[in-house]
Amino acid sequence: xxxxxxxxxxxxxxxxxxxxxxxxxxxxxxxxxxxxxxxxxxxxxxxxxxxxxxxxxxxxxxxxxxxxxxxxxxxxxxxxxxxxxxxxxxxxxxxxxxxxxxxxxxxxxxxxxxxxxxxxxxxxxxxxxxxxxxxxxxxxxxxxxxxxxxxxxxxxxxxxxxxxxxxxxxxxxxxxxxxxxxxxxxxxxxxxxxxxxxxxxxxxxxxxxxxxxxxxxxxxxxxxxxxxxxxxxxxxxxxxxxxxxxxxxx
Length: 250
Description:
25% helix, 43% strand
């Protein structure tokens, strides 16, 4: 009768266990990395063409122009029914040629933005509409050809139910500024009143059922890592139950 090679079996078992441990550690690292790397915010964005009229005082000069406004709303990556969440909005405005021509005509060298008043509406959220205003104002713009970026005041909404929340720019946008420099127009107040286009949709976000977390929030790498850990654990248990799985001959 041939003796079983117990030493060889133990060596193979130890090597197998070491390999499983390595796979488990790698899987756990990948899992934690995937979870840690999951996005914490999501955004919707649109560029809308507002129809605007600019009027100066005390001397009246009127300018009509189309003002492209890029609006970006940022919210938490996951929103569920009944959850309160904060929506932060950033606007980026590029002044049209009509306003730049008015600058050349009036002779002012810079523009001090004193206030911005706007609004946003949303479906399946409470409140259904909210006013927003410019933050960090007044601010002086010396180069009117460059895009003007402004943070707008955040709004706290409550998600009403599972479904889709669609955000839309409110119909009216008002910007009050002071003209600076030049001769006759120095110190003038310029009030720009704008009307949103017919389709003023900024974007839509998904509201999940209460207590659920979308699979995408964990991340593919995270899921792969967790599966690797589970598979390695099952394999290790099986190997430990049969440590001497070496055939013998009589």
